[in-house]
Amino acid sequence: MAFSIEHRAKANSLEYRIFFKDCKGHYISPFHDIPLYADEKNGIFNMVVEVPRWTNAKMEIATKDPLNPIKQDVKKGKLRYVANVFPHKGYIWNYGALPQTWENPSHIDANTGFGGDNDPVDVCDIGTKVCERGEVIKVKILGTLALIDEGETDWKLIVINVEDPEAALYNDIEDVRRQKPNYLESTVDWFRRYKVPDGKPENQFAFDAEFKNKDFAIEVIKCTHAHWKELVTKNTDGGEINCTNTTVYESPFICKPVEAQAIVEATPPCGPGGPIPVDVDKWYYYQKN
User: Fold this and answer.
1) pLDDT digit string (tens) for 124-147?
2) CB contact at 8 A, 48 and 97
3) Which of 152, 155, 148, 127 is nearest to 218 (CA)?
4) Using CA atoms, how far apart are residues 155 and 217, in angstroms rounded to an integer?
5) Mean pLDDT of all residues in the chain?
6) What is the four-CA torsion angle of 270, 161, 166, 42, rounded to 10 degrees?
7) With contact defined as beta carbons under 8 Å apart, do 220 and 36 qualify?
8) What is the pTM for the complete model shown?
9) 8 pLDDT exceeds 90?
10) Does the pLDDT value for residue 65 go beyond 60?
């Protein structure tokens, strides 16, 4: 299934959004309408790319907006950029989310002892291609890392694009360790320290920051997919989560194409992008704890 995107408002602005369309040109939600599986029989999943590798703008699926477009995170009224903590430059993978998953904050994870972070499950694609914002790629699951972010469970899936020329070499987390020395260690280091320049302490991890394998990661996905089903069918309270969708027929939140189009057109058309703050390229150095 092919998907396309539509940019609205000016890039690098508070109003900027990326909306999604299906193969028929109908507007959809990347959170709710893009299927979890690209090929369930062969264990291939869809990944929505929010942040291309090496970039700093913290883009994310807007879970509280109708149709859940991608937007840039905002902190204290300003667009949020991830700091470069030496030796890392921006995100060190293509970063995004699995559609039709939800880390329920009311569900205490038996593995971590903490509730979910109220978002779709995060994904790190280790493939060689630098993807585009809003690109939907097909991925193989390799493993997962259990980040504890300010008292919330925040799973980080490690995946590879099935179209990567070396995809056949990767089938589990140990393949990453063997084929890409120090990449997993660098991933832990990135997640541990990326908020320190903002004045926050280092992040913590469950399992002493050890990566869990593919089978474990698949169980995490199945659990969060089940929580999403409860969310989108209104069998659990999602709070401010917006479940407007156009294809989930068992959902009371489904809307008609004309209603979806009105949602999109409420955002101004795309225009020239604004400037990026000069300090986005600044390097931060500090002694590891």
Assistant:
1) 999 999 999 999 999 999 999 999
2) yes
3) 155
4) 9
5) 96
6) -150
7) no
8) 0.96
9) yes
10) yes
CB 154 within 8 A of CB 117: yes
Are 3 and 137 a contacting pair, CB within 8 Å?
A: no
Residue closest to 16 by CA, chosen among 52, 65, 89: 65
In order of 7, 50, 137, 273, the CA distances from 15 in angstroms are 11, 16, 26, 11
Q: Which amino acid is at 10?
A: K
Q: How far is CA 166 from the centre of its chain?
A: 23
Q: Give the CB-side neighbour count of residue 209, counting CA atoms within 13 A.
A: 13
- Report residue 196 as tokens: 């320190």
59-61/44-51 β-pairing: unpaired
Q: 189-227: string of b/e by CB count within 10 Å (b at 16+)? A: bbbbbbbbbeeeeebebbeebebbebebbbebbebbbeb
Q: Quick check: 288 pLDDT over 80?
A: no
Q: How far apart are CA 74 and CA 57, in angstroms?
A: 10
Contact 142, 177 (CB under 8 A): no
pLDDT exceeds 90 at position 162: yes
What is the pLDDT, as a whole number, of residue 275?
92
